[in-house]
Amino acid sequence: MTDSAVIDIRPVAGDDLPAWTRAWGNGYLRPYAESNVDAIRSSADRDRFIGAFDKDRCVGTYRSSAQELTVPGGSFLPVSAISRVSVAGTHRRRGLLTKMVEMDLRGAFERGEPVAVLDAAQYPIYGRFGFGPSTAMAWFEIDVHRARLDPRRTNDTSGVLVVDPREYLKAAPEVYERLRAVQPGALRRDERWWQEATGQHPGPGPDRPEPFFALYMDPDTGEADGLLCFSAEERWGAMLPQSPLWVRDLVAVSPRAEAALLRYAVTVDWVTTVHLPYRAPDTLLPLWLGDPRAARISALSDYMWLRILDTPRALSARTYGIEASLVLEVADAAGYAAGTWLLEGGPDGASCTRTTRGPDLRIDVRILSSLYLGDDSATRLAALGGTEEVRPGALARVDAMFRTGRRPWSPRAVLGTRYQAGAP
Questions:
Q1: Tens of pLDDT along 33-71?
Q2: C or N: which end of the chain has fewer Cβ atoms within 10 Å?
Q3: 97 is in an annotated binding site
Q4: Carries keyword Magnesium (predicted)?
């Protein structure tokens, strides 16, 4: 067994990318293909790749990308988005992941990225690095026959236009940008993302059938207010249709657009079940059905995890539910977010500065990170430890300041062939 001290943890580029790609594929049970290497190589100029190398063999992978996160109030906060993390089963329990995380978080802090985010494939891993779950996701299965939507009532889907990939590509990015401007938890989708989503630039993985595309056109303005991408499979049993439909992406900037696009998906001919993943748990989508109980939650899980690195910059970037001040003593074993901070904020903006005043609340960076987007309650999380209410009423004040009227949501789309809850 190789001593972990001689395993090289280093940035990856050039000749190391094939070995890195193979190691990542092994970790995620994805077969190696040269096309995967080409896809990884094409992003090497803008993403940061870290690898753990035992001699010439890659045994650990890690990638981070410069991203933008929408925070409450609508500001875009630069963040480091972490993905494709793996350690070979032959090299676990040697601190390789810890070293890769430490290298990347140090780099993010030095680059001026005040927050890091990731989608955690496994719950127990990232809390020890200061991350906390900051958004949740629900997966729905809709029983079409119980939904009580009559496909003959075309006014329910008025404004929906079925389009080809090129028409979709012209309109969909602008629709998403309008949503991203107001949706806490949303991340940027760049041009390459949209090209992959529409098949113009295939991503890593096996070829997949082209999905179907639709837009919602507002009848008053003529603008696209919503987008829908889905795939379906023709199935029959005893001369009865039993076809499933999988929603890959559904984004709308108005309730009218959201209702029309969902109703269209549920009334597609021959479809008996609609699978609807990656929604905020408080989504209104089931309520657009004739019988909301037709939408059964098949999975409910934490999703985006967040780690505050620069406390004053992160807390100053968002708005708050009430005008108030709060002194937070933040504990952070890695040191990045640690300190005693005076937060003064309200619906119109905020400031956060270091202070010598006594704290109202002592809080671990994991808990503060979970509260940051407004999805959880400080009063609730305090029962788990990691928080000490120094002044009575501080927890209630945190809840009044940090909580948002609607839960944060990070819109996700199914780009690959994996369609199960929690697929990274």
A1: 777 788 788 777 789 999 999 998 999 999 999 999 999
A2: N
A3: yes
A4: no
Tell me, what's the pLDDT at 418? 52
Over residues 380-407, the mean pLDDT reads 96
Is 349 annotated in a binding site? The answer is no
- Claim to verify: residue 268 and residue 142 sit in the same structural domain: yes
Considering the domain architecture, whether residues 143 and 290 belong to the same structural domain is answered as yes
- What domain count does the chain have? 3
Is 276 marked within a binding site?
Answer: no
Q: Tell me, yes or no, whether 165 and 224 share the same domain.
A: yes
Whether residue 69 sits in one domain with residue 16 = yes
pLDDT (mean) for 166-187: 97
User: How far apart are the two ends of the chain, measured CA to CA in Å?
Assistant: 30
Decide: 211 and 230 in contact? Cβ < 8 Å: yes
In a domain, 62, yes or no: yes
Helix (H, G, I), strand (E, B) or coil at 263: helix
Q: Is 93 annotated as a binding residue?
A: yes
Range of the domain at 386: 311-402
Domain boundary among 268, 300, 332: 300
